[in-house]
Specification:
By secondary structure, the chain is α/β, with parallel strands linked by helices. Helices cover 27% and strands 34% of the residues. The protein has 2 domains: 81 residues, Alpha-Beta Plaits, CATH 3.30.70; 189 residues, Vaccinia Virus protein VP39 (Rossmann fold), CATH 3.40.50. β2 and β3 form a beta hairpin.
């Protein structure tokens, strides 16, 4: 039996920064999949976990600087592809990497990634994924061991593998992300990627050269100490899923566990940062 989801279709004017704020507020309430559209946002939450009255806790909806309306419909998980195909265009990252769907033409770039996201996060459309892809492009992955925490579609793990990583562990707590990441890993013929369902508690005695984590501020703050226990000396930690005003807090926690700040990129108030252990 397919799980049932509620789809909230938001129309937003102006789009930014309202879309980013709305995603952050909805994620804090349990929404776990988002797709930005030409006029707003599609947001998805498991029907059994959602109380519609909780929407009153989404403060951006009451902000008079933005005109936000929404409609609600019920969908099955398997219907995600149809929704996605209506809105997904290929993503070009610095003319080196393209993230596209199977029905798009093959792209003449160094890294041509094919993604079918289902209910998972990580097509490259959102600022955090796009910036993480940018940072991944700057690193040497040749013969490196890599961890991708909160892998979503697996797109970061796939790019790491394409760049020559020896082994990649991709982990996500959501079952549909786990299944979707396995599908995408297979489609891109990345045999060195192993996908696991779970969270940072799955880490035992593994050690990595590079750790990627595009999740959210609170989980990052909780797990930075765990990353420190599984990153080799001199290894790189790439983080995203938080706002510009949060970078001081993230960096403070990283410093407390032996990391040094190296660089960051910003897009529409979202941040992706690089730290070295």
């Amino acid at each position: 039996m397919q799980e049932l989801f509620l789809e909230y279709r938001f129309s937003i004017d102006p789009l930014q920064p309202a879309v980013d704020i709305l995603i952050a507020e909805l994620a804090a309430l349990g929404f776990d999949s988002f797709l930005e559209t030409r006029d707003g946002l599609l947001a998805y939450v498991k029907k059994e976990l959602w109380n519609p009255s909780d929407l009153r806790n989404v403060h951006i909806l009451a902000n008079e600087d933005f005109d936000i309306d929404y409609e609600i419909s019920e969908i099955e998980q398997e219907n995600w592809n149809a929704k996605w195909e209506e809105n997904f265009d290929p993503i070009n990252v610095d003319n080196q990497c393209v993230v596209r769907a199977p029905f798009h033409d093959e792209q003449d770039v160094a890294f041509d990634i094919v993604i079918t996201p289902k209910m998972s996060f990580g097509t490259g459309h959102h600022e955090t994924t796009h910036m993480m892809l940018q940072l991944v492009l700057t690193l040497d992955f040749k013969d490196k061991s890599v961890l991708d925490m909160g892998c979503g579609t697996g797109v970061l793990a796939i790019l790491a593998a394409m760049k020559g990583a020896r082994s990649v562990d991709a982990i996500d707590i959501d079952n549909w992300s786990y299944l979707n990441a396995m599908e995408n890993v297979s489609a891109n013929k990345c045999e060195q990627i192993n996908v696991f369902e779970g969270d940072a508690n799955l880490l035992t005695d593994q050690n990595y050269d590079i750790i990627l984590a595009n999740i959210n501020r609170n989980i990052l703050l909780s797990d930075i100490s765990v990353y420190a226990g599984h990153l080799k000396k001199g290894g790189a930690l790439l983080l995203s899923g938080f706002y510009k005003e949060d970078i001081a807090l993230i960096s403070k926690e990283c410093l407390a566990h032996g990391f040094s700040f190296q660089d960051n990129v910003e897009k529409n108030n979202w941040v992706a940062a690089k730290y070295v252990f």
